[in-house]
């Protein structure tokens, strides 16, 4: 076990532990576990916080995407554009609906969808675009919206990011335990301002039925449950402060001079640093040295989506996505969470410096 983890989830909820146990105990006392008062209250509170109109709790962020695409009637014969550099679930949801994921390259500076490359890949079959607010940084929604194609925002990594969740016809979130707002297991959310769409999503998450009597649609069994909604309600009022602390920690890495030895993520006000990802052509050697120093790190999406075995049949395995490939080789996530100590960050920066100077004398 590394001495410094990549994310310390327990440190985030430690100050809330007593209340957390009380809320879980209250659910146990109530005997209600499915679509009960915590789920309904969380949906209202999350919709109000996000300024989203409607929020529908589902079982996880992957189902949130599948159900959003289903609600938009996306299926066989349709194409949906998404980044080649993102978590597998983004493209998997498109394929799960029987539609074709069409990959586009990313912008070198932001690692988010490159709107120009998206434009080049639009065909008459393109039914939606799924921008991902990768690593917590809002995607170029203004430019993408200009293409006039419905946008489904994959905001799994960007809960509370200014500028996320406001442009798409639908937005989706994951509350996987390492996310900015997190549950104690799997959980997810779909938001939309469109009331009709919200109603369809509500039906879809519960077998296409309002009251388990008439089944109007072929749906899913994908509900947020009370045992997850209760902690989510407790954590929601803290997410703003947690995101502020993440931004503060990101700024501290820059102040500590990390930028002298690797390329730092460029800051912008909406960035909520779901993960803190730097870049270096020496990424793998730096990682080796971090392991030896007891510091956890990660290198995301090393095999980009167009080359993933399950997605090869969609025909872009040989296509070129130069910025995706470069990001796959160079990205390096360093420890960051809400409340990470300055001393911990100093150790991380010294270890990266050491790795780079060791390399220089080789
Ligand atoms: C960009 C992105 N989309 C979708 C998902 C899927 O979310 P979940 O793991 O809750 O199914 C994740 C997360 O894990 C993600 O990072």
Structure report:
- The structure is a single chain.
- With 362 residues, the protein is an alpha/beta fold.
- It folds into two domains: 9-237, Aspartate Aminotransferase, domain 2 (3-Layer(aba) Sandwich); 238-361, Aspartate Aminotransferase, domain 1 (Alpha-Beta Complex).
- The protein has helices at 9-13, 17-30, 37-50, 61-71, 88-96, 115-121, 141-145, 195-204, 226-235, 239-255, 283-292, 322-330, 342-361; strands at residues 54-58, 79-83, 100-104, 126-129, 152-154, 170-174, 188-192, 276-279, 331-334.
- The chain has a four-stranded mixed β-sheet with strand order 1-7-6-5. It has a three-stranded parallel β-sheet with strand order 3-2-4, with helices on both faces.
- The chain is globular.
- The two termini are 29 Å apart.
- Pyridoxal-5'-phosphate (PLP) binds at residues 60-62, 86-87, 89-90, 132, 154, 156-157, 174, 176, 186, 188.
Task: Give the secondary structure arrangement, pairings included.
Elements: H1 9-13, H2 17-30, H3 37-50, E1 54-58, H4 61-71, E2 79-83, H5 88-96, E3 100-104, H6 115-121, E4 126-129, H7 141-145, E5 152-154, E6 170-174, E7 188-192, H8 195-204, H9 226-235, H10 239-255, E8 276-279, H11 283-292, H12 322-330, E9 331-334, H13 342-361
Parallel strand pairs: 2-3, 2-4, 5-6
Antiparallel strand pairs: 1-7, 6-7, 8-9
Helix pairs in contact: 2-9, 3-9, 4-5, 4-8, 11-13
């Amino acid at each position: 076990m590394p001495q410094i983890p990549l994310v310390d989830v327990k440190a985030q909820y430690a100050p809330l532990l007593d209340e957390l146990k009380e809320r879980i105990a209250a659910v146990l006392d109530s005997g209600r576990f499915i679509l009960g008062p915590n789920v309904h209250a969380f949906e209202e509170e999350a919709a109000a916080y996000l300024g989203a109109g409607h929020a529908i709790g589902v079982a996880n962020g992957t189902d949130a995407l599948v159900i959003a695409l289903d609600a938009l009637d996306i299926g066989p014969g349709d194409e949906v554009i998404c980044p080649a550099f993102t978590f597998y679930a983004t493209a998997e949801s498109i394929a799960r609906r029987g539609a074709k994921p069409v990959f586009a390259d990313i912008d070198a500076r932001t690692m988010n969808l490159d709107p120009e490359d998206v434009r080049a890949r639009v065909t008459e079959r393109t039914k939606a675009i799924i921008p991902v607010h990768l690593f917590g940084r809002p995607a170029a929604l203004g430019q993408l919206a200009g293409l006039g194609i419905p946008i489904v925002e994959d905001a799994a990594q960007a809960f509370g990011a200014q500028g996320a969740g406001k442009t798409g016809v639908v937005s989706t979130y994951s509350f996987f335990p390492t996310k900015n707002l997190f549950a104690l297991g799997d959980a997810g959310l779909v938001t939309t301002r469109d009331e009709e769409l919200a109603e369809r999503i509500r039906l879809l998450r519960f077998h296409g039925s309002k009251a388990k009597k008439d089944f109007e649609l072929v749906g899913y069994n994908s509900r947020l449950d009370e045992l997850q909604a209760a902690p989510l309600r407790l954590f929601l009022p803290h997410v703003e402060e947690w995101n502020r602390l993440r931004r503060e920690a990101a700024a501290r890495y820059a102040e500590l001079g990390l930028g002298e030895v690797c390329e730092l993520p460029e800051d912008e006000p909406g960035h909520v640093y779901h993960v803190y990802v730097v870049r270096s052509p020496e990424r793998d050697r730096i990682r080796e040295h971090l392991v030896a120093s007891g510091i956890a790190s990660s290198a995301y999406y090393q095999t980009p989506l167009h080359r993933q075995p399950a997605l090869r049949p969609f025909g872009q395995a040989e296509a070129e996505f130069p910025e995706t490939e470069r990001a796959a080789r160079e990205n390096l996530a360093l420890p960051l969470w809400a409340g990470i100590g300055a001393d911990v960050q100093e150790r991380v920066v010294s270890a990266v410096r050491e790795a780079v100077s060791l390399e220089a004398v080789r």
